[in-house]
Amino acid sequence: MQYTALSTVKHRLQPGRPLPFNVRDADRTLLLARGQPVESVEQLEALLRRGALVDLAELRTARDRIREAPRAALPGLWTNCMAQVSQTLLQSDAGSFGDALETAAEPVQALIERDPDLAIFQVLCRGDSPDVAYGAHRSLQTAITSYLVATRLAWEPAQAERVFKVALTMNLSMLELQGQLARQIAPPSDEQRSELRTHPMRSVRLLEQAGVTDADWLHAVLRHHEVEDGSGYPSGCTDVGELASLVRRADVYTSKLSARSSRDALAADIAGRQMFMQDPGHPMTAALVKEFGIYPPGCHVRLISGELAVVVARGASITAPVVACLTDDRGIPLPAPVRRETTDSRHAVAAVVGERSVHVRMPLERLLEALAA
Q1: 3-state secondary structure labels for all residues of 196-261
Q2: Which one of 77, 160, 187, 275 has the minimum C-beta count within 10 Å?
Q3: Domain extent at residue 324
């Protein structure tokens, strides 16, 4: 192992915050473990004076590790990182919630940057059935979408990271209710309507209790259901702010892509068309629809040849994605996915296929085999 002086990375340390790496004495004896806080400026200065060391391997950030990971490892990284975010959301009452969310969110943002097509694939994946898991999954869908659109709009990295956290935490106070509403056929009860109406204020309160002090973050959570024309809630204000404005649009779009007991998920091309019709000319909506296109990764399509396929990457044009065939032209499942270039007129996309009509599926790991072919 190779070590470097703690003084070379002191900019990454802040008194009272958990250590991102182990700190060792000059003889390699462990002084402070990763996750422990440096209690004060005086303690930090004492560590620097005694020549404390850090293992160079531990200085690699989550972004470094994901940037360097082999492509075949990305599906597993997505699964693990999204599970970590979901678990963190369910522990929002912990005093270290802000730090835990930061730690869980960074790898997901890195995965989005590494491969936006795989990020979109996660948005179109269906969530788990338990109520709270559904709510957490919906928050992740919105957060990924918000981050993708913020990047397309060339927002500053700090603002893109902030909008990701706003989307993750906007429904913190009603994660379970989201799942209940998704599986019930009857309209919301009066009690449920009241919870829906007040959830922005309650989510802000939870964040404040968890130690979040970022005023822009809290303001956006409070206003993520407000609309510029004053028709939103809870206050009907028109001064929405760009963070809340983008999160609301991402939430509306991903809601259209999510099935409920009372309705099927909309096909991606229809969801995009509706967004344009409902919000014509707005640059955020235009960027969102352009980012996802009419055949986003993760949606199922029928080819002119009769084959059933799943989109695995956006193509050179919005009408010609890269797909992996799941069946042959007679509907017989294939033993392995087969890559098709839909620029070839023999394999052009004929139509988007609704989720209820898809009876053949393959894990993302297998689909990437077709993408690499």
Answers
A1: HHHHHHHHHHHHHHCCCCCHHHHHHHHCCCCCCCCCCCCCCCCCCCHHHHHHHHHHHHHHHCCCEC
A2: 187
A3: 300-372
